[in-house]
Amino acid sequence: MIPVLIPSLPETDAIVPYLRRIDEAHIYSNYGPLTKAFTDRLCRLIGAQSGDGPVHAALTSNGTTAIELALRYRSAGRPGRYCVMPSWTFIASAHAAANVGLTPYFTDVDPGSLALTPEIAARALRANPGDVAAVVVVSPCGAPIEIEAWEAFEAEYGVPVIFDAAAAGLNLRQVGAQPLCISLHATKALGIGEGGAIITADAAMAAAITGMTGFGFAAGSRVSEMRGGNYRISEYAAAVGLAVLDGLDARIARLREVSLAYVAGFEAIGVPMQAGFGRDWLTMTANAIFDAGAVAEVTAAFDRSGIQWRRWYGGGCHTHPTFATCPHDGLAATRGVAETTIGIPFFPSLAPEQIAEVCGCAGQVLSSR
Ligand SMILES: *Cc1c(COP(=O)(O)O)cnc(C)c1O
Fold this sequence. Notes:
Structural class: alpha/beta
CATH class of the largest domain: Alpha Beta
Helix content: 40-55%
CATH architecture of the largest domain: 3-Layer(aba) Sandwich
Number of domains: 2
Number of strands: 9
CATH superfamily of the largest domain: Type I PLP-dependent aspartate aminotransferase-like (Major domain)
Bound molecules: pyridoxal-5'-phosphate
CATH topology of the largest domain: Aspartate Aminotransferase, domain 2
Strand content: 5-15%
Distance between the termini: 25 Å
Order of helices and strands: HHEHEHEHEHEEEHHHEHHEH
Strand order of the largest sheet: 1-7-6-5-4-2-3
């Protein structure tokens, strides 16, 4: 069997030096020294990815709560019931909106980029005049986000935009004021187990949201000035995070190697992968896009061959009972995107023979049709 994903985090020995620091400091949470060091290194890493300009971060307990707090901060005091977001996303995006009292309004995605576009979002605003509190733009499985287009969108329509960039931690090419929410879950490229971060060029926003992660206390005070809760990470999580960053270069090199081998393998059988995957950006999920007429046969062949596969975003959020009554824009392209975008086995230790097996299995089905 070839599993669809094998998460891998630093091994114990790489974490131990950081654990000893915790033993010495007797600080276990509440923005301790390891959390500060991890935050600084994360900002420097993303600053280096995104060129110059300041990068600030608020760490959160996970990616879902990062989205939740960014939405709470940016939609506070705004009119409107709805949070516009693509249906084709991981269900966490919808829960985050619902957790701050908004109802998701599900939109379609562009079938080429698999992402929400400013045109689709503008159509959603026209369909719900005055009733949209915020827009969540999702990075599909980690693909880079066109930040400038969304800055122009927010300037034109006056509706706050936040980015669910949960899987895009290695692909933040630009950081503006609009918050980029990333996940540090074990299954993401920057995984530390559980954790999240809100990345922004807006220092005041990062400071305020950090306050929201600790009961809304302003820095250095015990007076609650904002709605929030306990959304912090512990020093133990930060210890793992520091060990992850120590090993990141090797991880990136490995991900690139495996990704490019896949791109070549699928190119040889004429099957596109998600646009730019491997060549332009790196993530932890590999999607191949099969013809609608062939996808059932290919996945059946995967099943027979013990090749695990997954539709990472299922049929879209609107197909889940919890969100089935939410309004949507008709989702004309979503069904096709959900049907044909297939997550194939992908992880850093994937061997060339396994890649050959996956591509060979799909290729055999396609050539016999
Ligand atoms: C993983 C993911 C999340 C949730 O992140 P957690 O850290 O698991 O809470 C949200 N949105 C998308 C698109 C994701 O892939």
